[in-house]
Hints:
binds FE2/S2 (inorganic) cluster; two-stranded antiparallel ribbon; 74 residues; 0% helix; 5 strands; 3-stranded antiparallel sheet
Amino acid sequence: MSTTDPHDAPVATPDVVLCPEGPMLLRGRHVLEDADGRRHETTRPVTAVCRCGKSQSAPWCDGTHKLLPPKVRP
Ligand code: FES
């Protein structure tokens, strides 16, 4: 009897990438729910989601994280 370990399967390109001290990148289509329960649909091939909480375009990253001191970046 042979069993297939799903962890042995080839690794696909990740569709979620956490950028060091920056946003979370989403590849492809996703529906995101913010802290207020509003849903946002991604429309681009790659979408940057804010992780620092300082974006003026929340939930999307607007680059503000680059202005933050490294200690408070995500
Ligand atoms: S992670 Fe880029 S503005 Fe927050």
